[in-house]
TrEMBL record, chain A:
Source organism, top-level taxon: Bacteria
Coarse class of the protein's main subcellular location: membrane
UniProt cross-references to PANTHER family, sorted A to Z: BIOTIN TRANSPORTER BIOY, BIOTIN TRANSPORTER BIOY-RELATED
Protein name: Biotin transporter
Cell location: Cell membrane
The family this protein is said to belong to: Belongs to the BioY family.
Membrane topology classification: Multi-pass membrane protein
Organism listed in the record: Aneurinibacillus thermoaerophilus
Gene Ontology CC terms, in alphabetical order: plasma membrane
UniProt xrefs under Gene3D superfamilies: 1.10.1760.20
Any single Pfam family the record assigns to this protein: BioY
Keywords assigned: Cell membrane, Membrane, Transmembrane, Transmembrane helix, Transport
Transmembrane segments: 56-73, 79-99, 111-133, 145-167
GO function terms (MF aspect): biotin transmembrane transporter activity
From TrEMBL, chain B:
Single GO MF descriptor: transmembrane transporter activity
Subcellular location: Cell membrane
HAMAP family: EcfT (MF_01461)
Family: Belongs to the energy-coupling factor EcfT family.
Name of the featured protein: Energy-coupling factor transporter transmembrane protein EcfT
Transmembrane region(s): 28-59, 65-88, 109-132, 249-265
Topology class, membrane: Multi-pass membrane protein
Length: 190, 267
């Protein structure tokens, strides 16, 4: 096993821990909507680590939560969260990380691109969420979608913020020379 | 900005019981099958049977009921929402109650009871796994269950290693984030007042140090591990051995018994 791959594996594990920490932080930007940093940290992880290790970090996060460590929002944890009606949103993170990573690994990263990538990721998360909500909650499609839609607007606000902050963080990490060589530093144009 | 000061230790409740002493692998497989059985139970008799098995499992585990019920907390609002939706929008069966535009039908009440009971059963049986098995045991169990897939390139050992590393660092990072937040606040940063732009920019000094430190930490840990001769999972021996014992054989028989019973009670 090469040194870079061991280091990247440890890095994914640490990013998984960072997502767990961020899921417990909530900041109120627009008074009624608390901004949980969970999906924000997920998006950021993919932007920084790229497809392979980003997806790995998200997969780890879901697994660590599934085995009962309170890493999901509000210190929730365990298999019940995943098999429950809203578990699809968490499982959707894995798929969306893979797709978002694939898109980010190509070409330059601008705010517009980060925003589009995040929209695609959000759509995947919501589709996975609706499917599980329908199956576990035994609802009709229109009811499951109806419940889902109430969360789309706050999520849209979140991803605009995530795209903005993600590019800022990535640029600062690049300036500090911390992004691994496999991630091309010249990609960042913000 | 809200943090919880206490560092949580997970859901595991140590006890001496049949379920606690089973091998994590057999428990993982049991729960997986049991979730399928819950979805298969489509008659009242079959459903009552899986419900009875779940309650029996809770009794055998010797875990205080309050801990088990806590597992339902994350889905409470969605269960309530499901019930409301079913009761007020289902227009089948005899009309039981009507007032202006609100109508409650018999089928609606039945469906609401069935669907919410099924979600509750699903979550209770899943939480029994994490209540009776520690995260470390489950990590070992997952590694062992996934290891046959190594032939196809699935990184079973690596995944388990990374899970252990995350487990080790979550408390550290929680503490560190708290320290960074306090350090920034003492410099005048405010996370709960000022304009939106100001608050967004307030997050950056909180998050950047977390990421920067993780890069440094990963490098150090990788060096430390390789200096001690870490070469991946090949030929590595284990401190904690998993053993398939009498109890696991019993659990296997119980699983088969439940499968047959549910199959017979199905419509």
């Amino acid at each position: 096993m090469g040194k870079t791959s061991l280091k990247m594996m440890i890095l994914s594990a640490l990013f998984c821990a960072i997502i767990a920490v961020c899921a417990q932080i909530s900041i109120t930007f627009l008074p009624p909507v608390p901004f949980t940093m969970q999906n924000f940290a997920v998006a950021l992880t993919v932007v920084i680590l790229g497809r392979r290790y980003g997806t790995l970090a998200i997969l780890l996060y879901i697994l660590v939560g599934a085995i009962g460590v309170p890493v999901f929002a509000k210190f929730n944890a365990g298999l019940p969260v995943l098999v429950g009606p809203t578990g699809g949103y968490l499982i959707g993170y894995i798929v969306s990380a893979f797709v978002m990573g694939t898109m980010i690994d190509r070409g330059k990263l601008t705010f517009m691109k980060a925003f589009i990538v995040n929209i695609v990721g959000l759509a995947i998360i919501h589709v996975a969420g609706v499917i599980q909500l329908k199956l576990v909650g035994s609802m009709t499609w229109d009811k499951a979608i109806g419940i889902d839609i109430t969360f789309i607007l706050p999520d849209l606000i979140k991803i605009i913020l995530a795209s903005y902050i993600g590019i800022q963080v990535r640029r600062r990490l690049a300036l500090a020379g911390l992004l691994p060589n496999s991630l091309n530093n010249e990609k960042i144009v913000a | 900005m809200s943090f919880l000061n206490s560092i949580p230790i997970g859901q595991f409740v140590p006890r001496q019981s049949f379920l606690h002493q089973c091998d994590p692998r057999s428990k993982l497989l049991f729960v997986l099958f049991f979730i399928i059985f819950i979805f298969m139970a489509n008659t009242l008799a079959a459903f009552l049977f899986v419900a009875a098995v779940t309650l029996l499992g809770i009794a055998v585990s010797r875990i205080p009921v309050i801990y088990v019920l806590r597992g339902l907390k994350p889905a409470l609002w969605i269960i309530v929402l499901t019930v409301i939706l079913q009761v007020f929008t289902n227009k089948e069966g005899a009309l039981l109650f009507s007032w202006k535009f609100i109508e409650i039908h018999e089928k609606g009440l039945q469906d609401a009871a069935f669907v919410s009971a099924r979600i509750i059963l699903l979550m209770l049986s899943a939480s029994l796994l994490t209540l009776t098995t520690s995260p470390i045991q489950l990590t070992d169990g997952l590694e062992s269950l996934f290891s046959p897939f190594r032939k196809f390139g699935f990184p079973a050992h690596e995944l388990a290693l990374m899970m252990s590393i995350s487990l080790r660092f979550i408390p550290t990072l929680l503490e560190e984030t708290d320290k960074i937040a306090k350090a920034q606040m003492s410099r005048g940063a405010s996370f709960s007042s000022g304009s939106i732009i100001k608050r967004i920019n307030g997050i950056l000094p909180l998050i950047v140090p977390l990421f920067v430190q993780s890069f440094r930490r990963a490098e150090e840990l990788a060096f430390a591990m390789e200096a001690r001769g870490y070469r991946g999972g090949e030929g590595r021996t284990k401190y904690r051995q998993l053993r398939f014992g009498k109890r696991d054989a019993m659990l296997l028989l119980i699983t088969i018994g439940i499968a047959v019973t549910v199959w017979l009670l199905r419509a």
